[in-house]
């Protein structure tokens, strides 16, 4: 899903590490330091500050210039924030049969620098798919694909916001929010009307979370999805479902009074049965990755408290309390009215 996000094409390329310039001594690993075999005498003088050794098969190319050729490998062209191409062309493809919109939609998901992530334009989406080898892509469906792509990413971020609203301050605070089930937690957090709200953040003492980077891992199924598949073989009526069609890891910055830390979230994307109208249905399984005891505790608290609250009759107990309070209020109002009469 988010694997198509890309930044605006930079004007210049910056090397990941600065290369020394000037009259630097050759590094110790340079074969020039090794004695024994006399160095090969080249016709052209070796550039100053460069290692004079040149492998025989690349001798002609190595002695022509001291400036290394620009990196053109795959890793050099990837954005470290999402492991996707840093430059997604917004130009019409040569084999394109019709024009596509060039406008990019801004998401509600903040970056680490405070700006918002932007989704690709339909033209960028189409170019990216061609670049990945999907040359048979139906160009008439690209705009719909962009809409689904954006919708799913917003849904994933809404799920992450739900986790962060509960546990941004720690496990103890998270338990107090979760102890009466999901419905009560959403009411406490102010998201009862829309649990998938991506922007509401009521805690004024700490900043909301930010998406630092993400990566797609569709060929690496999560342990939970594999367990569900195994259970589906044993109990197909209860757990039978198709495997997720995609998997993402999102790295989120969580800040509180103790400082900021990076939390990894795992997202499994499932496709459900289409609606009678033909509209597709998707399910997202979003949870903190099991990278330590804290994330394990968060998952146990949120799921365990909700199950226990419903199984132990917590909802019925709360309704009885409300009815009892209502009955007391009615009795008080009745007593006051008799006094006035």
From TrEMBL:
Keywords: Coiled coil, Heme, Iron, Lyase, Membrane, Metal-binding, Mitochondrion, Mitochondrion inner membrane. It is found in: Mitochondrion inner membrane. It is an enzyme of class 4 (lyase). One of its GO terms (cellular component) is mitochondrial inner membrane. Residues 312-339 form a coiled coil. Its EC number is 4.4.1.17. It comes from the Eukaryota. The keyword Chaperone does not apply. InterPro entries: Holocyt_c/c1_synthase (IPR000511). GO terms for molecular function: holocytochrome-c synthase activity; metal ion binding. Belongs to the cytochrome c-type heme lyase family. Lyase that catalyzes the covalent linking of the heme group to the cytochrome C apoprotein to produce the mature functional cytochrome. This is Holocytochrome c-type synthase.
